[in-house]
Amino acid sequence: MKVLSHRGYWKTVAEKNTPAAFERSFSLGFGTETDLRDLAGQLVVSHDPPARGALTADDLLAIHQRHDAALPLALNIKADGLQSLLLASLERLPQLDAFVFDMSIPDAIQWLKVGVPIFTRHSDVEPDPVLYSSSAGIWLDGFHGDWWDGAVIARHLDAGKRVCIVSPELHRREHRAAWERLANDGLPSDGTVMICTDLPEEAREYFGNDH
Q1: Would you place residue 179 in the very low, low, confident or very high pLDDT band (cuts 50, 70, 90)?
Q2: DSSP-assigned letter for residue 198
């Protein structure tokens, strides 16, 4: 199972979505999830409305390319209409394993039109993932509990989807029981299943497979 750090591999809250967190994540062989917005005509990394001086998406990609260019990037789209800005960066890196998720439905349709892979969310409050047939993968989430199991994941894999599981600690819940279920399910390690976590080194050690 591929491990993705959540907003980079940060050691303090202030490091989230910073160059230091991304350098640490990529240097240790983890992909990452991060947030994209626009600011003054530029694409920037920021979970909240960005301020001047925010890390640009191109700077993030430069850090990524200095390490393993095959490490996956999960790009959480926080504003509509970013297609042209991101495409300009992605077209320079045609082999990049990147996908977008969490945008509005009308905006998701625009991402599909320009050919950028999208992941649709399947969660306890979204039992019927939208745009399923057009999506490259599933962002498997649990807002109120860990409702999913190996059968849910297998169903998506059988439909030709990749799956990224949101680890419970991202919702401030204990993660060990869910991790144990995943380990017992014997999920593939070929990149079709990923986990997004605040504990990437612990996840790698626990699942005991490749990065």
Answers
A1: very high
A2: S
Pair 69, 95: CB distance under 8 Å:
yes
The residues, any chain, with a CB within 8 Å of residue 161's CB and separated by 6 or more, are: 135, 136, 137, 138
Tell me how crowded residue 166 is: count the other CB atoms within 10 A of its CB. Answer: 22
Enclosing H/E stretch for 41: none
Binning pLDDT at 50, 70 and 90, where does residue 9 land? very high
Domains and CATH numbers, the chain: 2-207 (3.20.20.190)
103 near 76, Cβ under 8 Å? Answer: no
Provide the 3-class DSSP secondary structure of residue 140: strand
Tell me which H or E stretch contains 164. Answer: strand 162-166
Percentage of residues in the chain with pLDDT exceeding 70?
Answer: 99
